[in-house]
Amino acid sequence: MILISHRGNINGRIEKTENKPDYIDDAIKLGYEVEVDIWVIKDLFYLGHDKPQYSISLNWLSQRKDKLWIHCKNIESIERFNILNENYNYFWHQEDTLTLTSKGYIWAYPGKQPINHSIAVIPELFMDNIDSCLGVCSDYIQNFK
Q1: pLDDT tens across 76-134, in order?
Q2: Partner residues linked to 3 by β-bridges
Q3: Mean of the pLDDT values across residues 131-145?
Q4: Domain of 125?
Q5: Which residues are bridge partners to 48 per DSSP?
Q6: Rounded to whole angstroms, how far apart are CA atoms 78 and 37?
Q7: What residues form DSSP beta bridges with 2?
């Protein structure tokens, strides 16, 4: 099963550290992949959920691209990743039942399981059945080991 830390969280949501580059790196060092929220503004990259907060470089993203699930938060970000063509795994969604990532994974909104071979996002919110899932993205990802 693919284990994805939601914004770097491992054992519960910690809003003040979510999407911080060091926090993401800590989750990766523990062996998890990480869903991150990315904004692109005037060709610069930022991490942050509700707004761009932490400036990062394209090099930072490139060094971690095999471990990141990139949630594009504005139109500029999805446009930029679409032209980069460097095998990033990115997607856009809001409250859709599901979306497909650029690598063809089914990313399913919380409460919509079971969906075969999908990534269950925050399944603990609705006690989703994840038996047929390919992976999980959670604030409590260590509980799914």
Answers
A1: 999 999 999 789 999 999 889 999 999 999 999 999 999 999 999 999 999 999 999 99
A2: 136
A3: 97
A4: 2-144
A5: none
A6: 11
A7: 135
Number of domains in the chain: 1
Cis peptide before 114 (omega within 30 of 0): yes
- The whole-angstrom separation of Cα 21 and Cα 130 is 29
Q: Return d(Cα 128, Cα 87) in angstroms, integer.
A: 30
Q: Which two tokens stand for residue 3?
A: 């284990």
pLDDT-derived band at 145 (thresholds 50, 70, 90) equals confident
3-state secondary structure the chain: CEEEEECCCCCCCCCCCCCCHHHHHHHHHCCCEEEEEEEEECCEEEECCCCCCEEECHHHHHHHCCCEEEEECCHHHHHHHHHHCCCCCEECCCCCCEEECCCCCEEECCCCCCCCCEEEECHHHCCCCCCCCCEEEECCHHHHC
Please give the model's pTM, rounded to 2 decimal places. 0.96
